[in-house]
Design a protein that fits this description.
globular; 3 helices; 2,3-Dihydroxybiphenyl 1,2-Dioxygenase, domain 1; nine-stranded mixed β-sheet; homodimer; alpha+beta; 35% strand; 134 residues
């Protein structure tokens, strides 16, 4: 069921500063920032060839990463995202194994325009885990 | 300078249980556990095709992930590892940009038998960042 690692999301308090740091200190290729108000984040992508890092900065009053940054003001590792071929089949397998998915269980359209859901971190040893239909 | 994402390391309190959960709930391909006493961890690899997850369980009295699990007993995201072609050149670029590397600044032989170093998480927005010479 688990396919490729689509991305690793890192929350940062200042996306411009983080993008500049990744470029100059780590020699990384970082995209221009992209505001996604419907997802409550501004994102920049670090291209790694085989996968990507998403640097996330909160956007708006109800950002899903605001609580994370309140707890970890310097930023940190927020979630991993794996690709699956069938998001509803993945959900059903998780539920059948006793796992929980966040929200009402219905996939939503994620930041890449594809159906996503999140597995409860308590069911995957503390790691917030996103699944995206590839 | 930054090359491919070599792995994402997730700390878990119980590697056998985590491996089983990844297999049954997420349908992942997980290797047999491998004890690395010189690195203070037992590791299992989740093969994702384009990269891998390393599930890490503490091993011995001086495990480098013991403090992490004391703070986050359920487990969580521990570090990311990027490949670089020249570990000393990478270190020099980081230092020149005002960044810090952990330890004495000399690369060590990591869990894969290749030279590695860690960038101070305070210099990369809270994410513990390993570089490995590919």
């Amino acid at each position: 069921m688990l396919g490729r690692l689509n991305h690793v999301a890192l929350a940062v308090p200042d996306l411009a500063a983080a993008s500049e740091r990744y470029r100059t200190m780590l020699g990384a290729t970082v995209s221009a920032p992209s505001a996604l108000p419907e997802h409550g984040v501004t994102v920049a992508f670090v291209d790694l060839g085989n996968t990507k890092i998403e640097l996330l900065e909160p956007l708006g009053d109800n950002s899903p990463i605001a609580a994370f940054l309140a707890k970890s003001p310097k930023g940190g590792m927020h979630h991993v995202c794996y690709e699956v071929s069938d998001i509803r089949a993945a959900r059903d397998q998780i539920l059948a194994a006793g796992g929980r998915v966040l929200g009402d269980g219905e996939p939503r359209i994620g930041a890449h325009g594809r159906p996503v859901l999140f597995v409860h971190p308590g069911d995957v040893f503390g790691t917030l885990t996103e699944l995206e239909q590839a």
